[in-house]
Write the structure tokens for this entry.
Amino acid sequence: MIDYEKMMTHVRSHPFPLVFATISGAHLYGFPSPDSDFDLRGVHLLPLEKVIGLNQGPATIEKEGVYDGLEIDLVTHDAAKFFGLMLKRNGYVLEQLLSPLVIYTTPVHEELKKLALACLTRHHAHHYLGFAATQWRLFQKESPPRVKPLLYTFRVLLTGIHLMRTGELEANLCSLNESAKLSYLDELTDRKRTGAEKGVLDSFDLAFFQREYERLTRDLEQSYAESSLPNAPTCREAIHDLLVRLRLGEARSAGYLESSVQAPGCKRSDE
């Protein structure tokens, strides 16, 4: 089970106002190990005096440690940096933004989630192809090979294929496999969720996984070629206007950054 209250205690200690904080990583992807740490990701808002002068505030803040027995890694980007990443072919930040595992949220978060749908493009396929290639190389070079990079490889390929075909960003491997129906993924996922974070494969068929990696890569490339998603985001001006409102303090004065929600939990996050 995810202890949202302990997470919220960690989030409250952040030095700047937050737009949102969600859980990413293995918990979002559907295959956390019993000893997995918690990857919290979000957006903070630097005050105006930290962005208009010579002494700039931190665009990225990282906090990690063990809190009440939980190993937590919290990384947040300032709104300007995060918004800029949203407009690039960066599926990672959009997954964080749209994560259903919400620790802290605000009305601005809800506005951003709507804008995120207009950030999805067919060129996000390149992000997932590159990510998969990196994870596959990591899997190949380790001896003995670990389960985690293999699962990451297939997760990002299936996420990319699903996005290209449906226009929906789905990061949970268990949900993705409901339609992919790859039996070996069920076995690998169960192994990861019941074993150690750095668990290894004692016996495996490298040639089989190589063929599957190449097959799914071709599927993603084909899905990219056939995708009806736009070539570029269609919400740049809306995101620009939101950032200006945030910087000028209109959203904060209206209470848009004052509402927090401690999520009651999500079925697939606790499986």
